[in-house]
């Protein structure tokens, strides 16, 4: 039986908050977020796929990514890890290195919190830095809901029985 997808995502126009429960241990979920395997699950054919991920997951370490859109455009982003507390917390800055239609190249900060729960891990993302850019915040709330669904499907893949 497949685990029901339970992702919640919202914004107040300045900060985005999204969360989901995963049937996977915090250690497994943490590795899926910072390890090279992130390229395997982040994205879909209909939206965009992560095609190049590089990360030095330590305080002060840098990360870079290129996502390729469904129509073949490469969109780079990068940032710095501000806090790393394996397997519980990741705080990182993010800046698009292209002119995002609603956010531009504004630097934002994303904080991931991984909490052990009875069936695995509650993953919460708090993404701030959208002050004055309500449309960008709303788009990112939708985006984080997709990302958490992709992450959930990936970390739970080994737990599912094929129909």
UniProtKB/TrEMBL annotation:
InterPro entries: ASHA1/2-like_C, START-like_dom_sf. It holds the Pfam family AHSA1. It comes from the Bacteria. Residues 24-156 form the Activator of Hsp90 ATPase homologue 1/2-like C-terminal domain. Belongs to the AHA1 family. This is SRPBCC domain-containing protein.
